Amino acid sequence: GNSVTQMEGPVTLSEEAFLTINCTYTATGYPSLFWYVQYPGEGLQLLLKATKADDKGSNKGFEATYRKETTSFHLEKGSVQVSDSAVYFCALTSYAGKSTFGDGTTLTVKP
Amino acid sequence: EAGVAQSPRYKIIEKRQSVAFWCNPISGHATLYWYQQILGQGPKLLIQFQNNGVVDDSQLPKDRFSAERLKGVDSTLKIQPAKLEDSAVYLCASSLLRTRSSREQFFGPGTRLTVL
């Protein structure tokens, strides 16, 4: 079956530091890949997506590139802010619409 | 546009009692998902509907969990009888799922269930 493996957390960074959260996946066919974010006290929301190989998703300064050769979709941000503190989930959705999530990575950014 | 609605937001019950959760997806979204999210883990898919038909319920504990989506719009998830390990947040999500570029899901606020 499909699976998503995320870098274990928690991750603690100082403001303006560089962020990478690793995500690798196993899936048949060509899934769509997503990063969802859950801010404290809020629901899950889409952060960015990529639908085919070599696509780059970006939003709010975050980026991730769909790498089919390494089955990866790592999340990056050049300069994190305190407001980026949240739980980040990597996920895939197969062609049939079946969805699989990673276990989440908690990011804390200190001023 | 209105988001995914869920109720109740919180529920506390004793083990062996029954409970039901309700979800109303975004208008026009044919695909509806129910997830169970245990503290510290990612959402685990319980059941996926396409209109009023079940697409995937392979991880639904069918001896105690049931779900329906009559008329292909809102949906109800029921647990009967509840066990301590059912304590979790139950998330509902919906998606257009018509094309490769419309597979993202929109989540409701969730229902936090505590089983005592």
- Helix-strand sequence of chain B: EEEEEEEEEEE
Largest sheet of chain B: 7 strands, mixed
Enumerate the spans of chain B where pLDDT stays under 50 for 5 or more consecutive residues: none
Number of helices of chain B: 0
Could you say which structural class the secondary elements and strand pairing of chain B correspond to? mainly beta
- The number of distinct β-strands of chain A equals 12
Straight-line distance between termini of chain A:
41 Å
- Low-confidence sequence ranges of chain A: none
What is the helix/strand order of chain A? EEEEEEEEEEEE
Using the alpha-carbon principal axes, give the shape of chain A.
Answer: globular
Strand content of chain A: over 45%
Multimeric organization: heterodimer
The most extensive interface, with participating residues per chain, is: A-B, 25 and 27 residues
Mind describing the biggest β-sheet of chain A? 6 strands, mixed
Give the overall average pLDDT of chain A. Answer: 94
Helix content of chain B: under 10%
State the end-to-end distance of chain B.
37 Å
Question: What would you call the shape of chain B?
Answer: globular
The Cα radius of gyration of chain A reads 13 Å
